[in-house]
C-alpha cells in the first residue's frame, strides 16, 4: 500500500480509538447513583498499588473510588457511594470507610437507624408528610 493509504488507515484507527475512549469516559461519568462525583486525571498512569491496568480495566481504590484506565489519555474515577440528601434533621449520615457505605442514623443514638416513628415526623427536607 502507498504511504498515503497507510497514513489514512492510521488516522482512521486513531480516530476510532479516541471515539471509544470518549464513549467510555461518558459512560463512566454516568454511573448509577446520580449524586456520585466523578473525576478525570489527564495523563495519570493506569497503575494502583503496584498493579498496572490496561485500557478499560477498573479498580476500587481504598477511598472508595471506582477508577477506569483510559490510557493514553488518563484515568477516570467516580465515587461509589450514594450520598443521602433527604432525611430529617434529627438524623445524620455516617460513612463507613471499610464498606464504602453511608447509613442514616439517629443523632440522639447513632446505633439506631433513622426510621419514621410516632415521635418523629418525616418528610421532604425535614418537613412533615402531608396528611
Automatic annotation (TrEMBL):
Keywords: Chemotaxis, Cytokine, Disulfide bond, Inflammatory response, Secreted, Signal. Residues 1-36 form the signal peptide. It is found in: Secreted. GO terms for biological process: chemotaxis; inflammatory response. One of its GO terms (cellular component) is extracellular space. One of its GO terms (molecular function) is cytokine activity. InterPro entries: PSP94 (IPR008735). It holds the Pfam family PSP94. Its main location: secreted. Acts as a ligand for C-C chemokine receptor CCR2. Signals through binding and activation of CCR2 and induces a strong chemotactic response and mobilization of intracellular calcium ions. Exhibits a chemotactic activity for monocytes and lymphocytes but not neutrophils. Belongs to the beta-microseminoprotein family. This is Prostate-associated microseminoprotein. It comes from Alectura lathami (Australian brush turkey).
